[in-house]
Backbone:
């Protein structure tokens, strides 16, 4: 027997409409006996497309066409579905429901109250291996509104670390991730911005002002510095996450109003450029050797990215539910650092860290370390005498990198 899925919200909308018959669309997976029937075509569905007819109360007296299709018959207390085969015989199908809005809300109640998150708007800049995964995790947690920024398309070399699949090749990442978000939370409102944020500053300002939380997962510093300006202007909270070369490790920085900014952390644009993950050879700084360039291009495994995404998601949930009575309240008093560091392997920047099995209280791999970052009195972005104008070149001569001064708190 074929197994049919229909959407309760679509069923209710049809029952409440004036129409007695509508033409919809069904998507069947051949050989699997599974069919999804909708009242309208979906923008990006997979499976074989077959006509579907929705009726109230009874079957039509005449068949539609001499080819196979599905019929859904709805009454106030019953839903039946039939497959009309090539011989125009009716085969009854098993009907299953995709839950309605109310049911999804009641099912999701648990560790996080869904109503805390359902009206929160999260802006995600960059939908690479970080941003794409974070968007989907937040959709699963019940975040209701997204603004997704990325001007790239899904390419073959992205796939190994990206949530998108081979079916998404060539698509804009914004469109592909919207589908993935809706697939997890069909009620989510998703606005798409396939643009470079530094090209459309007025729009960027407007979107930062509207967001409850901004997540910056880009692989270039121009966007991070530009975003910092907007955050300072609108007093917003943001999370900056990234992997360093070959994903040997990574870090997460939290920007909160009144605290240190991204510019306080990295000190200078030049320093940050030398340590950030660079996946595109054309962006390599001129002073990087061929050996380093090759290392930079091998960007690491998805499993090296996952732990960093996971901390960003947890911090995001803490920020979105801050001050509310929720199941993750305890994290609010524990995740109090501005900066978190993670190492996957003892390489380069982490080469001096202790081996995992002999670390005792020294920093080692596969553990999170928090650090308090001092607010820089001479910060060109957030200090009283900040001079940085948007898009202007920064004079880095007087600035020193802050990484060396970071003291890791091991908690032991
Ligand atoms: Zn600053």
Residues:
């Amino acid at each position: 027997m074929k197994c049919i899925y229909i959407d309760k919200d679509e069923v209710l909308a049809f029952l409440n409409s004036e129409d007695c018959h509508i033409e919809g669309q069904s998507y069947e997976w051949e050989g699997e006996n599974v069919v999804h029937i909708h009242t309208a075509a979906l923008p990006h569905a997979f499976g074989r497309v077959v006509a579907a007819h929705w009726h109230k109360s009874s079957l039509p007296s005449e068949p539609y066409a001499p080819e196979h299709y599905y019929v859904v018959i709805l009454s106030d207390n019953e839903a039946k579905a039939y497959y009309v085969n090539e011989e125009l015989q009716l085969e009854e199908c098993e009907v299953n429901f995709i839950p309605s809005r109310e049911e999804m809300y009641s099912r999701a109640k648990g560790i996080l109250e869904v109503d805390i998150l359902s009206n929160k708007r999260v802006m995600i800049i960059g939908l690479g291996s970080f941003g794409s995964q974070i968007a989907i995790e937040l959709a699963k947690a019940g975040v209701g509104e997204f603004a997704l920024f990325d001007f790239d398309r899904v390419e073959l070399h992205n796939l190994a670390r990206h949530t998108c699949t081979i079916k998404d090749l060539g698509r804009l990442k914004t469109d592909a991730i919207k589908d993935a978000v809706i697939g997890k939370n069909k009620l989510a409102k998703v606005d798409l911005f396939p643009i470079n944020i530094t090209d459309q500053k007025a729009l960027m300002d407007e979107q930062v002002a509207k967001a409850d939380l901004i997540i910056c997962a880009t692989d270039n510093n121009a966007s991070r510095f530009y975003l910092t300006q907007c955050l300072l202007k609108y007093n917003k909270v943001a999370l900056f996450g990234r992997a360093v070369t070959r994903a040997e490790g990574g870090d997460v920085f939290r920007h909160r109003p009144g605290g240190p900014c991204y510019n306080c952390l990295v000190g200078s644009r030049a320093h940050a450029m030398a340590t950030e993950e660079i996946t595109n050879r054309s962006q390599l700084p001129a002073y990087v050797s061929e050996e380093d360039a090759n290392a930079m291009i091998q960007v690491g495994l998805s499993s090296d990215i996952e732990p960093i995404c996971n901390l960003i998601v947890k911090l995001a949930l803490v920020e979105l539910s801050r001050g509310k009575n929720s199941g993750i309240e305890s994290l609010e008093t524990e995740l109090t650092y501005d900066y978190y560091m993670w190492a996957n392997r003892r390489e380069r920047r982490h080469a001096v860290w202790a081996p995992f099995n002999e670390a005792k209280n020294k920093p080692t791999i596969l553990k999170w370390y928090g650090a308090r970052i001092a607010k820089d009195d001479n910060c060109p972005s957030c200090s009283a005498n900040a001079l940085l104008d948007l898009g202007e070149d920064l004079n880095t001569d007087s600035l020193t990198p802050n990484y060396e001064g970071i003291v890791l708190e091991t908690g032991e």
